[in-house]
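Slide 14.
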Amino acid sequence: MTRVLVVEDDPQLVRALVINMQARQYGVDAAPDGTTALRLAAARQPDVVVLDLGLPDMDGVEVIKALRGWTRTPILVLSARRASEEKVAALDAGADDYITKPFSMDELLARLRAAVRRTEAVPLAPQTTVVTTDDFTVDLLAKKAGRDGHDIRLTPTEWHLLEILVCNPGRLVAQKQLLQEVWGPTYATKTNYLRVYMAQLRRKLEPDPAHPRYLITEPGMGYRFET
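Slide 15: predicted structure.
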């Protein structure tokens, strides 16, 4: 059973989310504030976190940062904040998706399913389990990237993008293919998602993000990984 942690201080919304998720066979825990959310996340090890940013005891972005200190569990932000800088702050902190209130329950559940799909293991050939560059390594079996002996913290979405590119070295991977594989078929035209997440990957992996050596953009077409 997929376990979801809902972090939301509106009891009516929590009730609606719990009813809809349980009807689809999800296990659900609910937290009304950030402190409870962090305690439950450690105790229950959820597969996905659905998080409101406006919590009574701390800002949701701080919850994201705290979670990212030890887990790569997908985090879906569910917030009334619509400003683009708020969205960027949440994504930069480690959120995987951002849904604004009011929202469609069907859309939320679709994004929840997509988040779960992104964390599912992909069978790998033994010869492709570790990719080494001059600046970082990618261990596909352990689902980890590292530099100078230290792990590079990646969100599940960032990892899924990197994994697809690394498994196709030197080949152009089309924007539409990346969007469909990572976010699902309804996101085939959302190229802004790719721009945001590729920029984040470059900041974490490239020695000079403004002049990428490994994660190459082919304008209007897609992206390519060069070793």
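Speaker note: The first strand starts at residue 3 and ends at 7.
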